[in-house]
Amino acid sequence: MNVLAIRGVSRSFASAHGAATLALQATDLQVAENDFVTILGPSGCGKSTLLRIVAGLDHPTGGEVLLDGRRIAGPGADRGMVFQSYTLFPWLSVLENVCFGLRERGLPRAQQLEVANGFVAKVGLRGFESHFPKQLSGGMQQRTAIARALANGPRILLMDEPFGALDHQTRELMQELLLGIWESERKTVLFVTHDIDEAVFMGSRVVVMSARPGRIKLDRPVPIPHPRHYSVKTTAAFSELKAELMEQVRVEVRAAQAAANA
Amino acid sequence: MKPLVPVAPGARIVLGVAFFVLFVAVWAAATFGGLVSKTFLADPVSMLASGWALLTKMGFAYDIGMTVWRVVGGFLIAAVLALPLGVAMGAYKPIEAFFEPFVSFARYLPASAFIPLLILWAGIGEAQKLAVIFIGSFFQLVLMIAVIVGNTRRDLVEAAYTLGVGDRGLIRRVLMPGAAPEIAEVLRTVLGWAWTYVIVAELIGASSGIGHMITDSQALLATDQIIFGIIVIGLIGLASDLLFKWANRRLYPWAALGR
User: Fold this and answer.
1) Do B255 and A101 touch (CB under 8 A)?
2) Domain with B208 in it: what CATH number?
3) CB B185 within 8 A of CB B38
4) Cβ–Cβ below 8 Å for B162 and A79
5) How far B155 CA lies from chain A's nearest CA (Å)?
6) CB spacing of A100 vs B163 below 8 angstroms
7) Would you say residue B91 lies in a domain?
8) pTM of this prediction?
9) CATH code 3.40.50.300 for A2-78+163-261
């Protein structure tokens, strides 16, 4: 059963001299329950635009997005999002950040704390509940952001290069942490990245997008069983898929550069 | 000294006090040394002596109380009205488009120039004094609050929407708490300006207040009293500023982090 259905979604922007620039070609994508779909593509290919449209933060110029068969019209708590930039509310502690959505729903305080404490523990931040975001490292802030999104119990978790601003080592640890949470919680995830290793390691399906105007040019299942240990990154299956994706992405990066120089 | 290298806390206090000492020393040298005539500038000692006489024999404490009450009263009325309007303008662009041009114009109207009109409308009582402070602070506050609220980080707004807040929740739980420390700083700054307006208001048509005492002293060529009055205003301004700073730090500890 599909949780998310993207049907013919396109997006064009009005440019300075009135002509419309197409950022995203009519795109179709289905995401099944418990699926972890990674969207891979060169920068500026419209993958973030697609994710923002699903989140309801941007409006498609054509097509529609259905969540559980209902057309979405704006942002909502049923689609949790983790951004690349650090978006914790700086005036709230870690625990209060995680409680944010629960409080909005009017959940009794005791229940809010119970849920929030559970997710704070899951992302390994026990002991940091009363810290303010500015007192945390980038990795810890993103872990809090993941806990905040998950605590709300969304139908689908949208992630827009959530580890893009982190250093390499922290990023790998975060990938394992998120994968572990996904393996135990079985959430449905749509994850945008430009990192091929990340796309293969995290995803049960990898979708490659073309250079601008973006469209889906490739959709591959990842033939690696769960639970995944970080050592799968050195297996033949991993390397084989990575090699294919690298070729595909390279072509698109070249195309994007050629378009920029033209 | 190297550019931008911070100074140690102890040295900071010593340096800050040192300039006050230097200032008074130059003043004392100029007056006691006979460089400046007593008619134009009183020396520090006679200034303090007449200040003491003002407080103990001439009921100057009452004048100080009146001035403080006018500043605080006029400022509070302005702040209470400016806050909701400023937040509404910052949050809703049509409301901003409606009020902003007028408020931008009104804030350049000098509050002191309204005094003759206000005396005509409100007499020379307290209402007129409060109105001067109000005109001087209200429009400034509205504009600055609107800008602060309008500058809320858009990614925080988007994050809040994906966590399920509606428009009212966004204003109450994101725009207002996020803007609060900067709004508190603006209130602190504008309170300082309110002090300059109150004195102007008291120079004309007042029967009490620090400004009234200063005009009376002018007629008597009592420069020592005038200077004492000015120093009192400075000290009260400094005290209220420090109090505000301290309160802001206590209320918004998160805003001071990582600065």
Assistant:
1) no
2) 1.10.3720.10
3) no
4) yes
5) 6
6) yes
7) yes
8) 0.88
9) yes
Which positions in chain A touch B170 (Cβ < 8 Å)? none
Burial, A192: exposed, middle or buried (Cβ in 10 Å; 0-12, 13-18, 19+)?
A: buried
Q: Measured between CB atoms, which of B164, B180, B258 is closest to A104?
A: B164
Tokens matching residue A42: 């060169």
Which residue of B156, B158, B163 is in closest CB contact with A77? Answer: B163
> Residue A157 belongs to what H/E stretch?
strand A156-160
pLDDT tens per residue across all 259 residues of chain B: 889 898 999 999 999 999 999 999 999 999 998 888 888 888 999 999 999 999 988 889 999 999 999 999 999 999 999 999 999 999 999 999 999 999 999 988 888 888 888 888 888 888 999 999 999 999 999 999 999 999 999 999 999 999 999 999 999 999 999 999 999 999 999 999 998 888 888 888 788 889 889 988 888 888 889 999 999 999 998 899 999 999 999 999 898 875 5
ipTM: 0.92
Question: Which of B165, B169, B254 is the closest to A90 by Cβ?
Answer: B254
Residues A57, B257: C-beta atoms closer than 8 Å: no
Q: Using CB atoms within 10 Å of the CB of residue A225, give its burial: 0 to 12 exposed, 13 to 18 middle, 19+ buried.
A: exposed
